[in-house]
Amino acid sequence: MEVAKPHVAVLPNMGLGHLIPHLELAKRLVVHHGFHVSFLVITTNEPSAAQDQLLCSPHIPPDLHIVRLPPVDVDKITLDNDDVLVLTRLCTITAESLRSLKSVLTDLGKPKALVTDLFATQAFDVCKELSIPAYLYSTTSAAFNAFMLYLPQLDSDVDIEFIDLPEPIQVPGCSPIRTNDLVDQVRNRKIDEYKWLFYHVSRLPLASGILINSWEDLEPMSIKSIQENPLFKQIPTPPVYPIGPLIRQDETLSNTANLECLEWLDKQPPDSVLFLTFGSGGTLSFEQQTELALGLELSQQRFIWVVRKPTDTAGAGAFFHAGEVNENDPKVYLPEGFLDRTQGVGLVVSSWAPQVSILGHPSTGGFLSHCGWNSALESIVHGVPMIAWPLYAEQRMNATWLTEDIGVAVKPKMEAGERVVGREEIERVVRGVMEGEEGKVIRRRVKELKESAAKALDSDGDSYGSLSCVVNHWKN
Ligand code: UDP
Prior knowledge:
This protein is α/β, with parallel strands linked by helices and 476 residues long. It has 18 helices and 13 strands. It has helices at 16-33, 49-55, 86-97, 101-107, 123-130, 142-157, 192-202, 220-228, 230-234, 256-266, 286-299, 338-341, 355-359, 373-381, 395-406, 423-435, 437-457, 462-475; strands at 7-11, 36-41, 64-68, 114-117, 134-138, 210-212, 240-242, 273-277, 302-307, 346-350, 364-369, 386-388, 409-410. The strands form two sheets. It has a seven-stranded parallel β-sheet, with helices on both faces. Helix 1 (16-33) links the parallel strand 1 and strand 2 (36-41). The longest helix is centred in the C-terminal third of the chain and has 21 residues, at 437-457. The radius of gyration is 22 Å and the shape is globular. The chain starts with 6 loop residues before the first strand and ends with a helix. The structure holds uridine-5'-diphosphate (UDP). Keywords: Glycosyltransferase, Transferase.
């Protein structure tokens, strides 16, 4: 008689940057550890082509069951005004959606554990009621996790706004954090964005364990610090399990534009192409986009650039998605003649490109990235050095760590008082990474980390061991 597989539930929030790594974790639990996984999806009355495409992928294994939570009617929930910011909107929708969690988990026959996302910690209370151990899967760096775990302490120690502190902020496990780099949500402690972040991070100690999408060799100081630092011992910190890097393995190439990118790459020399894109929501101002175009042109390097309609607020609500029909013709937003002058050297794609396949292609030699954590991991796993171009959320912190601590990126310089990075500086960094000495150094470092990432996930590697340790708790 066949023995039933152990059953766990995984609960991501709606953002693609969260859905993707949670789905990869779920697949790993099924494929490597023999679990049956219920993947709980928060939905709204607004359709999401990106979500559908991801969840209908042919690469989803049979024991991974997608369970859509009842849709939240976003028109009916109170979002105080039209200017409500991204995190507040996300957390409000999530809170509403999780009202159904207790009955969903009960109907599913009470899984052995629930793994939840940072912005869904209300699930801890439901799990407590149902006596289900609740774990958190944090899809950001170990350094950012150290910052989050320490935030309640900072909040009680500091009276003024953090951005007004005269010195960089000392957090155990992180290099001193410059106030300019601080995550958007802590730059004004009076608004809802901060309150939501604070609410969820204050609840981290309620988790039975925290899984982090990172690995020992990538962030030794942060991981050791969270696990051992006496300061963290005073803050009730659950066991931390570095289980990464879990990145998307198999991208569905849904349209001809996707295939065109890869066919174009096939014709380019090894390590010769710079890939530019800004995550699922990043956009540039018109002025910045123009400078980037002219800087790229001056650099004379090959490139694939995902061009979006410029906005004044980096990434504000402008979420573009895989598979969505593009109404925006990039020609309209680029300097006159740019496409003709760069024909053959560069390829401009509108809105979205198959990032993982591009980063894994031998012709790709550099990545100009907004430094979302998934993008950073995808670049490192494929051994591609980065130009760090942070826009929003915790990306400025990531950019500094990737540049100064991990050594796989360079950051363009911006003089005090400048609104944009100028074309000459862009030319300098692009050339530097693609053919200069600086590029050689970070390329060597990223290739080392590529090897170490693969080792960490091997069946005798640290990250594999870490996840095995957690799943053994669940199985027993
Ligand atoms: N992505 C992509 N094509 C694009 C832009 C983004 O496939 O043109 C994917 C990327 O591979 C990554 C995710 O979208 O898996 C973005 O996640 P990340 O954490 O880097 O940034 P976020 O979107 O959360 O800001």
